[in-house]
Structure to design on (196 residues):
């Protein structure tokens, strides 16, 4: 019988080959909902450790205890979905996109040789707001902070010698930023239509 390490290695190889049907299905589902920028796609290709990209660069935006990590966004939006019915649909739609972001970053960190289990997380920096308007404004703030963090990572990758790994990372970051910009657009539209 394969031990746990062998099993997780097998799983990672399967996932790479597209054998994770739920991963493919949820990517398709999220792409077909109007909560992400489906004109920009997730990258295909191989990522390797030791190609210049440090997996730790992605730790803060993966599940850092801060106001902008993907895990922070999921908890913020899912909680706001429960708190306010009239923004519930938008918050849940966006939260599902953030879950794909967390998943794709987790895969990337592992493939770059990093670790996704040694970071501790707690909800200190999650802001829920006191009204729907407040909640949506906090969403804009969180999205913009996430984009700024992705831009900082791009600034670290761009000067590296170009290879398949750097290309994959930059394409993934472009996709994540496109989705976050779409979220800013959704939130700002909601404010325009609902706050007089
Ligand atoms: Fe995100
Ligand atoms: Fe977002």
């Amino acid at each position: 019988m394969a031990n746990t390490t062998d099993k997780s290695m097998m799983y990672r190889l399967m996932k790479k080959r597209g054998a994770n049907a739920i991963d493919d299905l949820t990517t398709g589902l999220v792409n077909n909902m109007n909560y992400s920028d489906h004109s920009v796609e997730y990258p295909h290709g191989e990522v390797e450790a030791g190609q210049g990209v440090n997996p730790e660069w992605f730790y803060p935006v993966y599940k850092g205890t801060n106001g902008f990590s993907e895990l922070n966004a999921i908890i913020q939006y899912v909680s706001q979905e429960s708190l306010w019915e009239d923004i519930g649909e938008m918050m849940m739609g966006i939260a599902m996109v953030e879950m794909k972001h967390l998943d794709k970053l987790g895969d990337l960190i592992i493939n770059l040789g990093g670790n996704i289990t040694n970071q501790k997380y707690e909800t200190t920096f999650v802001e829920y707001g006191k009204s729907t308007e407040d909640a949506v404004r906090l969403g804009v703030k969180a999205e913009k902070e996430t984009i700024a963090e992705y831009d900082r990572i791009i600034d670290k990758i761009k000067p590296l010698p170009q290879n398949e790994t750097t290309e994959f990372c930059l394409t993934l970051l472009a996709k994540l930023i496109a989705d976050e910009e779409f979220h800013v657009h959704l939130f700002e539209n909601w404010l325009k239509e609902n706050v007089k």
Notes: The chain has a mean pLDDT of 92. The two ends are 64 Å apart (CA to CA).
